[in-house]
Each structure stands twice: as C-alpha cells, then as structure tokens.
Design brief:
With about 500 residues, the chain is of the alpha/beta class. It is built from 14 helices and 15 strands. The strands form two sheets. A nine-stranded mixed β-sheet has the order 14-13-12-11-7-10-9-8-15, with helices on both faces. Strands 3-2-1-4-5-6 form a six-stranded parallel β-sheet, sandwiched between helices. The chain is globular, with a radius of gyration of 24 Å. The N terminus is likely disordered. Bound molecules: NADPH dihydro-nicotinamide-adenine-dinucleotide phosphate and 6-O-phosphono-beta-D-glucopyranose. 6-O-phosphono-beta-D-glucopyranose binds next to loops. NADPH dihydro-nicotinamide-adenine-dinucleotide phosphate binds next to helix 2.
C-alpha cells in the first residue's frame, strides 16, 4: 500500500475507528477493553508494560468493570505465578502505603495468564476464548468491544504473532469496536528487513491499527517540543540557519549492556538508540509547523525532514566500543558492534542548510543523560572585548531531572563592566513541585487506547529513517568501519569531541 494513502484519514474496516478520535485523541469510549501483553514473561513486560498499566489503573484510566488484562507467553506458569513475579515491580522496596498495596492486589486480580506458542493456533484460540468470556461478562457495560495487543517480544516473532492474532483473536463484536497492535522496536535491522516486516504486517492490519512504539515520543519534554517551538514568539524567528550554529541531540548511559549483550551485539548503538529515539527527536526539532495537531499532519512534516537528510559522510562519524564489552559471554570475541557513536546529519532545506545536527549516543559513559543542545551563532560586531563572549545555548534536558535552560551572557554583577555566562532556568522539579511526570509507556498505552497515533511512527517515517542509516550500518556490519576503544566511565573516544569541535560546537 502506498504510504501517501495514509495522509487521508481512514476508517478502519474492523469497526468504528473514528477519525476524530485519532485527531483529538480524547473521545471517551466505553465497553469491554481487553489488553493482551504478549511476551508477558519477559523483561520489558515486567519492567515497563505491566507497571505502566498499573499506573493507568490507579489513575482511573482502566476501570475494573471494563478492563481485563491478559499475559501471554510460552513459559508455563499459573496466574498466581505471574502475579507474584509482577508484584515486586509494582511495589517500591520500602514505604508502600496500605492503599498502594491494596491497589496492587486489586490490579493483579485483573490479570489472567495464558500459555501458548507464537506460531500455532491452539494457544491463540485459547486466548480468544478467554477474551470472549471476559467480553461476555462485561456485556452489562454498554459500548464497544476493544482488543489491544502489545507485542513485548523479539521482532523475529512479530509476523507469526500478527498472523495468529488476525486468524484467531480479532474483535468480533457486532456492536463495533476495534483491534489494535502495538509493536516494539527494533522494527527491522535495515531498510530491506524493515520494509519486509512492514509488508508482512501490512497484509494483516491496516496502518491505523498498527502502533509502532518509540518510547522517546512519550517523554514529557519530547512532547513539549511542538509547544515550545510553535507557541512561542521568541523562537519563531530564531529557529533557522541564520541564527543557529549547531544542534546536538545526546543520549548517554553510565552503564553497559548489562545482561542484554546478546541482543545488543546484533543491533549496536545506532539501531538501538540513534535510528529511532534520537532521530525522532531530531524530527521534532527540525520540522516545519504542521497544518494542525492531527497525527497525519505532524507525521507528514516529520517525513519531509527525514527525506531531506543528506547521505552521511565518513568523516562525520566516530564509532566507539567500551573496553570490557566483549567480556560478556554472549558477545562474540571479534565483535565490531559500536556501543558509542557520534554521527552528523545534514538537512538539505531552506531552514537548515549548513547546520550540523550532531547525534551522539553511548553506553558505559560518565553520566546518564539525554538532552538537546541548540547552540546559536556568535553575536556579530562584539563590543565586549574584555572577556571572550560565550554563545547563547538553549538546552532541553529530557532526563534525568527534566529542565529547560537558556545560557546567556549578562553583565557580571559589580562595579566593573565585564560579562559572564548565566542561565534562565526552568527546572521542572522546582517549577512544578508536586506534579508527577508520567512514564513514557503510560502515555503511549493510553494514546493507543484512545486511538491517537500522533506519537507513534508511521510506515513511511520508518522507511525514511532506515534509508538514512542503512548504508553506514551495512559497512559497520561488514567490518569496514571500526569502533575505537574507550574506557568505561569516560566521555567516549576523544575523536568524538574533535569532531564536535570541527562541526563548529564551542564550549561555552
Ligand atoms: P525478552 O528477551 O525478555 O523476550 C520477551 C519474551 O519473549 C520472553 O519472556 C520469551 O517468552 C519470549 N522470547 C524470547 N526469545 C524468544 C525467541 N527467540 N522466540 C520466541 N519467543 C522468545 O525481550 P524484552 O522483554 O527485553 O523485549 C521485548 C521487545 O521490546 C523487544 O523487541 C525489545 O527490543 C523491545 N524493547 C525492550 C526494552 C527493554 O528494556 N527490555 C526497551 C525497549 C524495547 P516465553 O519464552 O515465555 O515465550
Ligand atoms: C531502549 C534501549 O530503547 O532505551 C536501551 O533498547 C536503552 O538500550 C533504553 O537503555 C533507554 O531508555 P530511557 O528511557 O531509560 O532513556
């Protein structure tokens, strides 16, 4: 199916998927809601998916008279065994209030576990029977019958699982309703495999039923980017090549692959972080103003940015691998997989020609941080010659401790006329005391229930993002591009800082 067809709002052939629901993302729907977590025995399910469902439940978004949650995986365990496994991830180690403990127990009672394989109908028929029973029991609740399948699974089984869902588990209610499928990253390993996967899943589900999740799109300050850019007069005239010298989008973790070496080694840092999380952030920083906030309008603009990215130049890439990475027994001794990368992307359009977008990500570095750093050009005709004038920077810290701050030059307080760099600081912890910032997965699951695809990756977006990185990734896979060693706990290879400097970044 041609991707441009999705520019038009469509009705799902499986029920009353309202275009308005997708536009506004807040049309309340009632009726039975079945949430199925496939891969319920896994890491993501216990650490992120079930806790996000619990938080939604506690906030009243998953009313017990409508909702039932199903865990599905091959592991043979009972309902209670799954509940026991999950309990530890829902209750903090210390200081849980009696109310919280009571809520946890009530939530756990909503969960039923079904065991079965990912490629045979028996398990999925059983799952369908359980869901149908739940729907029958909730028949007294008027409204739609909704089925949400969350694939917390390795991508190798997505096609067979989607086929089983389509064959055995679609919503069958005469009153309408829907079936939606959430798929996790990594969605493919390169352009060809991603397109193959998209085609296979596309034969089974329509685009409005597929939610390709990128949890960075659920982060508070990533969601704030559109508001910041398009609701503030400050930024409108400045956000372009005339004023901005360079943009950095940075992800650092202060731990290594931590037991995920086997998975990580097949993907590497570019596929794990840059091609998806950082590139999505880049789109929101660089895109033009969308016609409206409708998901299709926003995603149209993101695709335009991606399609304007020039081929990556060899001299604008630095790769690294931390010392000790290969000590993990699941990592091959000769692994060429980068755990660190700095890659410069250049956007060939009127707004951004000549401005380097520096994407940097690394494991086992000196800190855990994700931020966007927009550095402005020097002020022309400087008259404050007494001290080197620093550059203006606008920094958006996505995590930890969400904040936005502007670095600016002010007069040093005192008798002398000298300048100093200072900050206008909007730290969320101080400004919004008492406000709990929701977890990314919480928001995104809620969006799926509401039918709002704004914060999910469309097929053409995915394709364009793989197009950017595939040539480089193939060369790394073939061993043509070698990562440089760096010490765990460091800033990464020194060559990355040299590249930053060459690209025009000035430490202020
Ligand atoms: P796991 O390796 O924990 O796998 C999840 C479940 O899938 C397992 O419990 C197992 O269940 C089943 N499974 C594992 N390997 C296979 C296999 N080769 N064939 C069939 N089934 C298998 O994965 P995660 O939970 O870590 O990740 C799930 C998805 O989410 C992946 O796509 C991952 O990339 C993505 N993701 C994970 C993150 C994380 O923090 N863990 C973060 C972001 C994305 P059983 O044997 O019981 O059937
Ligand atoms: C995941 C990556 O997508 O994002 C992990 O697979 C990484 O390697 C994680 O640790 C980081 O997420 P966050 O939200 O902690 O920045």
């Amino acid at each position: 199916m041609g991707t441009s067809e999705w520019h038009i709002e469509r009705r799902s052939s499986f029920g009353t998927e309202s275009p308005l629901a997708r536009e506004a993302g807040n049309v309340p729907e009632t009726g039975s809601l079945s949430i199925v977590v496939l891969g319920a025995s896994g890491d993501l399910a216990k650490k992120k998916t079930f806790p996000a469902l619990f938080h939604l439940y506690r906030q009243g978004f998953l009313p017990a008279d409508e909702v039932h949650i199903f865990g599905y995986a091959r592991t043979k365990i009972s309902d209670d065994e799954l509940r026991n496994r999950l309990r530890g991830y829902l209750v903090p180690n210390k200081g849980a209030s009696p109310q919280l403990l009571e809520d946890v127990e009530k939530f756990l009672q909503l969960i039923k576990y079904v065991s079965g394989s990912y490629d045979s109908e028996d398990g999925f028929r059983l799952l369908d029977k359980e869901i149908s029973e739940h729907e029958y029991l909730k028949k007294s609740v008027e409204g739609l019958s909704r089925r949400l399948f969350y694939l917390a699974l390795p991508p190798s089984v997505y096609p067979s699982v989607c086929k089983m869902i389509k064959t055995c588990c679609m919503n069958k209610s005469d009153l309408g309703g829907w079936t939606r499928v959430v798929v996790e990253k990594p969605f493919g390993k390169d352009l060809e495999s991603a397109e193959e996967l998209s085609t296979e899943i596309g034969k089974l589900f329509e685009e409005p039923q597929i939610y390709r999740i990128d949890h960075y799109l659920g982060k508070e300050l990533v969601q704030n980017l559109l508001v910041l850019r398009f609701a503030n007069r400050f930024f409108l005239p400045l956000w372009n090549r005339d004023n901005i010298d360079n943009v950095q989008i940075v992800f650092r973790e202060d731990f290594g692959t931590d037991g995920r070496g086997g998975y990580f080694d097949q993907y590497g840092i570019i596929r794990d972080i840059i091609q998806n999380h950082l590139l999505q952030v880049l789109c929101l920083v660089a895109m033009e103003k969308p016609v409206s906030l409708r998901p299709e309008h926003i995603r149209d603009e993101k695709v335009k940015v991606l399609e304007s990215v020039l081929p990556i130049r060899d001299d604008e890439v630095v790769l690294g691998q931390y010392e000790g990475y290969k000590d993990d027994p699941t990592v091959p001794d000769k692994s060429n997989t980068p755990t660190f990368a700095t890659v410069i992307l250049r956007i060939h359009n009127e707004r951004w020609e000549g401005v380097p977008f520096i994407l940097k990500a690394g494991k086992a570095l000196n800190s855990r941080k994700a931020e966007i750093r927009v550095q402005f050009k020097d002020v022309p005709g400087d008259i404050f010659k007494c001290k080197k004038q620093g550059r203006n920077e606008f920094v958006i810290r996505l995590q930890p401790l969400e904040a936005m701050y502007m670095k600016l030059t002010v007069k040093q307080p005192g008798l002398e006329m000298s300048t100093v760099q200072s900050e206008l600081d909007l730290s969320y912890g101080q400004r919004y005391q008492g406000v709990t910032i929701p977890e990314a997965y919480e928001r995104l699951i809620l969006d799926t229930i509401k039918g709002d695809q704004q914060h999910f990756v469309r097929r053409d977006e995915l394709k364009a993002s793989w197009q950017i990185f595939t040539p480089l990734l193939h060369r790394i896979d073939e061993g043509e591009f070698k990562p440089l060693p760096y010490k765990p706990g460091s800033r990464g290879p020194a060559e990355a800082d040299q590249l930053l400097e060459k690209a025009g970044y000035v430490q202020t």
